[in-house]
Amino acid sequence: MGRDRAAATGTECGLKGSRTRSLCAVPLMFRAGDRGTVMSRGPTTLKHMSDLLWTVSDLHLGHQRVAETRGFSDTGDHDRVVLDGLRAVPDGSVLLCLGDISVRKDAYALGRLAELKAEKNLTMWLIPGNHDRIHPMFGPESVAEWTPLYREIFDVIALDLQVRIGRWQVLMTHLPRASGKDAVPDPHQTPQPARWAGREGFDCTVHGHSHSPVPVRRKHVNLSLEATGMAPVSPERLEELVTQAVRFRG
After folding, report:
1. Domain Calcineurin-like phosphoesterase, which positions (predicted)?
2. Are 246 and 219 in contact (CB under 8 A)?
3. Three-state SS for 96?
4. Is the pLDDT of residue 2 over 90?
5. Dihedral, CA atoms, 140, 146, 151, 154, nearest 10 degrees?
6. Rounded CA gap, 73 and 97, in Å?
7. In 4-125, where does DSSP find H-type helix?
8. Is the pLDDT score of 161 beyond 50?
9. Could you say which DSSP state residue 176 is in?
10. For 9-46, b where at least 16 C-beta lie within 10 A, e where not — what string?
11. Which long-range contacts link 5-14 to residues 24+ away (Cβ below 8 Å)?
12. Residue 172 and residue 182: Cα distance in Å, rounded?
């Protein structure tokens, strides 16, 4: 990252094909096509939810163990199903991934996503997960090594997004909320990634990471592929899930 590092506190990120604009001011954020790495501090805010924004989490392309837990004998069949689900996204849409494109096979996963992006004319956004080697938890050397490759595919990379979905203020992140009275117990949490997950002041947290088949809990929406029928979620469906989570009384 070195001398090309630049500070930004109010970068506007336009969604292709939409009038929606976003105000980005993030702990760590990269924009494809920028000169160097754009970094700043503060939250990431989308002023409005675009009707072109589809959301998915936990692709785990090329990951044998997750393929088996999802009922596939090998990663080839698993990856075909995952990518076919992504192909159902309308051409020209924005596809937001809430992390974990793979596990130790980042280059392979990025290659498959590059093909999909070109085929569907997509804009791709990423909130890095704990298995994505661009995440700060891997350390500065890993981030510096993988940033150029990730930026070839993802137009925006941010640690979280704050959005308004319908009437609700929503945090979109990889990890479930790790603190507060509505925290979701997560056996996968460790103190290090938990530091990135603690946020307060939202009606709902939309996340992945858990691989639970349950999509809705109190103030939480889980978009791991296990909870979404192995397919991305449309903006209309996401609003329905968020409303259910906010009103959840179980």
Report:
1. 55-213
2. yes
3. strand
4. no
5. -100
6. 25
7. 64-69, 75-87, 106-120
8. yes
9. P
10. eebebebebbebebbbbbebbbbeeeeebbebeebbeb
11. 5/36, 5/37, 5/39, 6/34, 6/35, 6/36, 6/37, 6/38, 6/39, 7/39, 7/40, 8/38, 8/39, 8/40, 9/40, 9/41, 9/42, 11/38, 11/40, 13/155, 13/156
12. 15
Q: Convert the pLDDT of each residue in 180-205 to its tens digit.
A: 555 555 545 454 444 444 456 789 99
| Residue at token pair 């704990």 | 130
**φ, ψ at 225 (rounded to 5°):** -55, -30
Cα dihedral sign, 17-57-240-201 = negative
Which residues, 6 or more positions from 5, have their beta carbon under 8 angstroms from its beta carbon? 36, 37, 39
Take residue 90 and report the two structure tokens written for it.
């309308």
Instruction: Report residue 192 as tokens.
Output: 């290090």
**Domains of the chain and any CATH numbers:** 51-246 (3.60.21.10)
- How far is residue 244's CA from residue 49's CA, in Å, rounded to a whole number? 18
Q: Which two tokens stand for residue 234?
A: 């449309």
Q: Which residue has the tokens 């809430």?
A: 98
Distance from the Cα of residue 132 to its chain's centroid: 11
Q: What residue type is 67 in one-letter code?
A: A
